[in-house]
Every structure is written in structure tokens, then in C-alpha cells.
UniProtKB/TrEMBL annotation:
This is Putative manganese efflux pump MntP. The chain crosses the membrane at residues 6-27, 39-58, 70-86, 107-127, 133-154, 166-183. It comes from Thermovirga lienii (strain ATCC BAA-1197 / DSM 17291 / Cas60314). The keyword Manganese applies. The gene is mntP. InterPro entries: Mntp/YtaF (IPR003810), Put_MntP (IPR022929).
Amino acid sequence: MNLGVTLALAFGLSMDAFAVSLGYALASIRLRSSDMLKLAASFGLFQAGMPLAGWLLADRFVNIIKAWDHWVAFFLLFAIGLHMIYSGFHGDGTLPQKTDRLSTTTVLVLSIGTSIDAFAAGISFIGIEDIPIGNTVAVIGVVTFIFSTVAMIFGKRLGKSLSSKATLLGGVVLIGVGVKILLEHILK
């Protein structure tokens, strides 16, 4: 696999993490640099680690994984998106409030939800001869880290201008990514 193909793959796999990073940043009141680094690093690590895991486990679990991966991603992203929308309403539900907490659990759930497609991509590597798996997953991880960071910087700035509607928009983005993943697999 040449560098151009690897970069294209990394770009494609990082788009879900990009969208979720953007949505989360839109919904955050004070997204600290440490939170941005934590989320981007987690996305990068999961996007790199999941194809490696898929490649290593491909022979044993391919049928089980393909049957359930899209449902797991959909459920995780839908649940977090719904929670963000719910959290966007305070008290009587009339005034949206932006979220302000990035817990380790949230980081892990978002990372898993956005990297399940990368796991499936790793399964497909099994048919490629002489794939430089170490280089491939490193490029995927770095590209995802960069794209996620850029998305959060952009989302943070855009979120300030959107003010109270940002949490709702962030939740809708997460649900949209989950629905996209589900539909891609169902409509194959």
C-alpha cells in the first residue's frame, strides 16, 4: 500500500472523529487545551489501534464483527448525542445550556464509537499482501489526531458565536454520524 492510498484511507477513517470533535467542541463551554489534547489523542490512538486489532483478529471473528459493528457505533453515538441534546435543556427545557465536562468515560465511548469502522478496515487489510501495518496505522492515528484537533479549534470558535444552540447542534452532529454509519452498513 503506497503513501497516497494510506493517506486517503486515513482521511476517510478520520472523518467520523472530525465530525464528533467538531460537535463536541460546539457543545463545550470552556473546552480546555488539555481536554482537546485528551480527546484528539484518544481518537488518534483508537483510530490507529482498531485497524491493527481488526487485522490481527480478522480470521477468527470477521463474521461476528461485520454483523454487529455498525449497530454498536450507532448506539454509542446516538446515546451520547441524545444525552447532549437532553443536557442542552436546563430546568423546564426552554433554555439550552452548553455542556462543560469531558469525562474519561465520554472520551472512551466517543473513541470506540468513531473507530469501529477503522476496526472493520483493519479486517480488510488481511487480503493485502505486504502491507506495512505499522506505518499504515501510524499514519491513520496522526491524521486523525490532527483533524480532530483542527475540528475542535474550529468548533470552539464557532460555538462561541452559536452560544446556546451549540449543545443542541453538537448532539445532532453525533446522532448524524451514528445514523450515517448505520446507513452505510445497512445499504451495502
